[in-house]
Design brief:
Number of domains: 1
Domain Acyltransferase: 5-332
Keywords: Acyltransferase, Hydrolase, Membrane, Transferase, Transmembrane, Transmembrane helix
Low-confidence stretches: none
Strand content: under 5%
GO cellular component, one term: membrane
Structural class: mainly alpha
Oligomer: single chain
Number of helices: 13
Organism: Bosea thiooxidans
Order of helices and strands: HHHHHHHHHHHHH
Shape: globular
Protein name: Peptidoglycan/LPS O-acetylase OafA/YrhL, contains acyltransferase and SGNH-hydrolase domains
Mean pLDDT: 93
Radius of gyration: 20 Å
């Protein structure tokens, strides 16, 4: 199935937002070394990139799995596809993080993990870290723990008749959230899985259904919906009290839904302009960008400290640009070949 360029652009935006969030503390370190003031920019709630990713994920699972609904053996086929897509790069970055932690632990912001946390990280199972947080060894993997839950529920839903698949998945997500909200805090892993953010997967699935039923936003209406999404993000950055689990979903998740509607329910058959194609290429590499940018940001910070480049703004520009370049290379030379290799292996 052909990718939708506007969704790839949205994925690029989401990954870049997370990178902007993570580059600023390192820029502050350089500024402090130089004895100059650094005021972080929070014009947008940068971690809302994760909310966008989750809504996009819900949409893509429905959009890209049309050949599986009602098909014999669909759950196994679906899981093989997702494992081949997610596991190689995540396991590689997790292993690299562990190796860096052993070699130069001072460059990391975490303490040494215990065996249970390491095992849970590779299995996408929520565990408590040695720092007391429910997160894997490579902390960015917390989002993938939610993604794997969604994939398992989606695969289970494929066992049902086509008309029941998506309602069943949405219902299971709602039950998890309801159990945690009404009877929580629940023990792990249910306390982790039952956070309201998982409802964003269901929202993305709903948008995919609307698209299948023919919903299209044209011209000014599409621009207005996208602008409304940006406006909600701007308001969320300026509005106190939007950090709680439910408030975050309402504000950031609401913005993500609007942006996804504009991206996923637009007109088809339009040849994208060159800038859109370039951003869509970054969107193709958005998973790599999400996972690799902390390595680039921290590596360039250490290099900047050694050469005396303490100016935070040039560092941020270089680190973010370097992250994009690294992601494109990683996608081209590792992620795509590894995905093809694992898919062939799983198929056998």
């Amino acid at each position: 199935m052909q990718p939708i360029h506007s969704i790839q652009v949205l994925r690029a935006l989401a990954a870049f937002m997370v990178a902007v969030h993570h580059v600023q503390p390192d820029a502050a370190v350089l500024a402090e070394r130089a004895g100059i003031a650094f005021v972080r920019s929070d014009v947008l709630p940068w971690m809302a990139g994760v909310d966008i990713f989750f809504v996009v994920s819900g949409f893509i699972m429905v959009h890209a799995s049309q050949d599986l609904f009602g098909r014999q053996g669909a759950p196994a086929i679906f899981l093989k596809r997702r494992l081949a897509r997610i596991v190689p790069l995540y396991w590689a970055t997790t292993t690299l993080f562990l190796l860096v932690g052993l070699a130069v632990p001072a460059t990391l912001n975490s303490s040494a993990p215990n065996p249970a946390q390491i095992l849970g990280s590779y299995l996408f199972w929520p565990v408590v870290s040695t720092q007391g947080f429910v997160q894997p060894v490579y902390s960015l993997g917390w989002t993938l723990n939610y993604e794997m839950l969604f994939y398992l529920l989606f695969a289970a839903g494929l066992l049902l008749p086509k008309r029941w698949t998506l309602p069943a998945v949405a219902l299971l997500l709602a039950v998890l959230v309801g159990a945690e909200s009404l009877n929580g805090p629940l023990a792990l892993p249910f306390g982790f899985w039952g956070q309201p953010i998982v409802l964003e997967f269901a929202a993305g699935m709903g948008i995919a259904v609307l698209r299948q039923k023919g919903l299209r936003l044209h011209g000014l209406l599409r621009i207005a919906v996208a602008a409304a999404g940006v406006a909600v993000l701007l308001a969320a950055a300026d509005q106190p009290g939007t950090e709680g689990s439910w408030n975050s979903v309402l504000w950031r998740g609401g913005a993500a839904v609007l942006l996804m509607l504009a991206a996923g329910c637009g007109r088809e058959g339009i040849v994208p302009a060159a800038p859109v194609k370039a951003l869509a290429a970054v969107g193709d590499a958005s998973y790599a960008l999400y996972l690799v940018h902390p390595f680039v940001i921290r590596g360039m910070r250490e290099a900047a400290l050694r050469i005396g480049l303490y100016a935070p703004l040039p560092y941020m520009v270089l680190a973010l640009a370097g992250s994009v370049v690294a992601a494109l290379l990683l996608y081209r030379f590792f992620e795509k070949p590894a995905t093809r290799l694992v898919r062939r292996w799983l198929r056998g």
